[in-house]
Predict the 3D structure of the following.
Amino acid sequence: MRIGIFMYGLTWGGATRRIITLAKGFEERGHHVRLLVVEKEGHLSSTVSGMDTVELNKGILKTIQKRFSKKRRIDLSRWALAQYLREAEKYRGLDILLSAANHAHIAAISARLLSDTHIPLVIRISNHLTCSLKGQRGFRKRIRFLKACRLYPQADGFIAVSRQIAQDAAKATGIPKDKINVVYNPVFTPELLQEACQEPNHPWLRLRGAKGPKILLGAGRLVGQKDFATLVRAFKFAQDKTDLRLIILGEGKERPFLEKLISRLQLQDKVDLHGFVPNPVSFMARADLFCLSSRFEGLPGVIIEAMATGCPIVSTDSPGGAREILEDGRYGILVPTGDEQALAKAILKALDIDWDGEELKRRAESFSVDKAVKGYISLFEKVLAEKSQGKAKT
């Protein structure tokens, strides 16, 4: 099968890493994958070396679009994607197109309509549609929500990364629930276990359980959705009770705000905004507790990655897949979103529990590449069969 995957690019982030893992999983099972990206450059570009990658915006178009935001750039890429789809259909270069994440779907569906082609399109609903758009301030986000509700049903197949994401998408867009397939992200890999064995370059980290301050870890883009401000404030409450350190991995536009908050709380020597690291799993393998403070999520892979190393979890019970991963609190502690005191209490409680690391690892294995690839390929085959039957009838 010739599979095209449309996404913004190869910038750092859990969502991008999941798609790259999925693409490699397709290729390992004999399928040909072509990544269709707006920009090739990014922290993760080295991970796809040797993979067929097409940069849609080139030359003067790329230069002009540099002045625009990423969202605007991916919207404008619909014209280049439409042209690519026309050529792909003409030369039979593509059997199916997967739109990889919510940020890409409006452009992907619009491009398919503009191209007037019949290449089947499957959209992967990766985030909570209502919380990420309708529930946010700003006229543009609300317009995008209305566009999403109108356009999403025009795709040929639908994959949601968690049950709650599927329920929200069905309610918002009117897509029948039984048409949305829930396929968990491919997070647990043999490479992940190898990465966990590597030595992280950080002076605070040592073998889990060794003497010294307990190390808390957070990871993700420094943006409002991840709500690291609540984690920092919760850390302040918990740190007053016992000796702790907090490392946050990731970059984003909220770094200046978080730096000011850390300074105001006089936590400069106890909280480290460490930035991007190519191997966050090595940090997870030596942290005493992983903390997720998000306001909403799709399927937070960082929780699964941490569990795969035996690291205990405290997470907000945010809209999305955290509760599903932790099975209603069996594999970690869930707290309300935005509640710094509840998060602080959960941190202290989690540090006092003797967690079964092997049980956490076994739970992480449920989110394997093999299961994910089988789920996607099964849907692709179903969509192609339905398309073929439709052509035969006409």
In short: Residues 190-364 form a domain with the Rossmann fold fold (CATH 3.40.50.2000). DSSP finds 17 helices and 13 strands in the chain. The chain has two domains: 2-186+368-393, 190-364.
